[in-house]
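Need tokens for this chain, all 120 residues.
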Amino acid sequence: MALHRDIFWIGRQWAVTGAGIQAVDQRLRGVLDIEIARLWDDDLVQSRRAKPGVNAADFDRALTVARARFPQAPVSVPIVAQLGALGVIEAPVVSPVVPALTLHAEGKLARFLPQWRIRR
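Here are the structure tokens for all 120 residues:
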């Protein structure tokens, strides 16, 4: 994958871009890139660092810059859990049933069926 157009830091082997951490060498075709959403996944980071040929110092610097640039999003508690903690009584959610659209044109010639148009 080509480098993202927004480049915030570039090192010898790694770059911090708008897509996350990307390898500068385009022959790898984005195999070692790390997306913004997975910057805080330590297992993924360690697996990328352990790959042969990775400049560990440059990778660590890119990781530091990327984590400073894209802070970890706080884990949000679902609203249902928040309401339950507050003691709010939950009512069952009733979804309205929408009837399915059916077309009845059996046994009729298409040229005699009324035409319909969407008017704007």
